[in-house]
Design a protein that fits this description.
By secondary structure, this protein is mainly alpha-helical. The protein has helices at residues 2-40, 65-90, 99-112, 114-127, 133-142, 145-161, 170-198, 224-250, 259-286, 292-318, 323-362.
Length: 367
């Protein structure tokens, strides 16, 4: 049943993704032909419509540069950490009955990849014209670790009050803090310095105008929340079958050892997130709404919100957990995990959209 469900889910997601890609390619092909005919016919007096109409605003940098760059850098770091853990799992490094090995690998990988977060964040921040470098690095270093620390502090206090063995001893907490202070944070700063000094300028295929163009009124389903719900559904459908087995392993007594299948599902999650974000970015630009930067992050990361919504269903219908301690542990730590998914998939959605936007605007001639 497990294998049949996985194959059924993969085939469904691949068909939907292929259909979406085919439709989008046909639409883009027609757009390119339309714009090329206008240039050949010399129809300069014709009013531009669609996504070409906002060519002077599409590369206008968003507000909140420091936060935006930090989300991109930290999301890239979490993506790399996930790949490292998958590589170790597929190599047979972890013993199924010892979960501590996986948690240790995650902590070490996260600490050592701090330079990646700093490099990507500072590089993008420089390209967008940011100047508050100290704030950018501080936000990058704490945008994920600080919420994790606050959540851990509250939940560990609950565990201590219950006298549970799940509470970490004081010595372990001190060691984790030292690792962050002496390894993760310095590497983030070093990576930020390297990203600031080595990253080149932002190369846009068309010039940005001095004043932003007014965005026409849009229907309600073109706003951020409906778009996020639509963007999160397809990638979530690629992983929801595996979520039960993963939750049963982490919060139950089952063992999950089919890491190869889980890795395939993860690749499907990345592909579907990139495709759905690209499609929604195109439809947003087609209605002359050039504010795609933050929207791509929100749409890409919305799958994390869908996973957290699934947590409520699993807790109520599939688990036997009850009481304050189990409830707080489940929703607290799953909130942090889903927040990490939001950052990781949001950065993937933005990067895919940026590549797509650069491509389509480099194919048409603008004034």
């Amino acid at each position: 049943i497990h294998w049949f469900s996985i194959i059924n889910s993969c085939v469904t997601v691949l068909l939907l993704t292929g259909f979406l890609a085919t439709v989008l390619m046909r639409i883009l092909k027609n757009d390119f032909l339309k714009y090329s005919r206008e240039l050949e016919d010399g129809a300069e007096e014709m009013e531009e419509t669609g996504w070409k109409y906002v060519h002077g605003d599409v590369f206008r940098f968003p507000k909140g540069l420091s936060l935006f760059a930090s989300i991109y850098g930290t999301g890239t770091q979490l993506f790399l950490v996930t790949l490292v853990v998958f590589a170790l799992s597929l190599a047979g490094t972890f013993y199924p009955y010892n979960r501590g090995q996986q948690f240790t690998a995650i902590i070490v990988a996260y600490s050592l990849t701090g330079s990646v977060a700093g490099y990507c964040s500072a590089g993008l921040y420089k390209q967008m014209g940011g100047t508050a470098w100290v704030r950018n690095l501080l936000v990058t270093a704490t945008i994920f670790s600080l919420p994790l620390l606050l959540c851990f502090s509250c939940l560990n206090t609950v565990a201590i009050s219950y006298g549970s063995s799940a509470a970490l001893p004081f010595g372990t907490i001190v060691i984790l803090c030292i690792i962050w202070l002496l390894v993760a944070f310095p590497l983030t700063v070093l990576g930020g310095i390297a990203g600031k000094n080595r990253t080149g300028d932002f190369h846009a295929p068309c010039r940005t105008t001095k004043y932003p163009r007014e965005i026409p009124p849009l229907p309600w389903y073109r706003t951020s929340v409906p778009q996020m719900l639509c963007a999160g559904f397809l990638p979530f459908s690629a992983v929801y079958i595996e979520l039960y087995y993963i939750f049963a392993t982490i919060w139950g007594h089952k063992l999950y050892t089919i890491y190869s299948v889980l890795f395939i599902v993860f690749i499907l999650l990345i592909i579907t997130t990139a495709f759905i974000t690209i499609a929604l970015t195109y439809f947003q630009l087609a209605v002359e709404d050039h504010r795609w930067w933050w929207r791509s992050v929100l749409c890409g990361g919305s799958t994390g919100l869908c996973i957290y919504a699934y947590c409520f269903y699993y807790f109520a219908a599939r688990s036997d957990m009850s009481g304050l301690m189990q409830t707080s542990f489940f929703f607290g730590y799953m909130g942090v995990v889903c927040y990490g998914f939001f950052l990781m998939l949001g950065s993937i959605g933005f990067r895919a959209s940026l590549i797509f936007v650069r491509y389509i605007y480099s194919r048409v001639k603008t004034d």
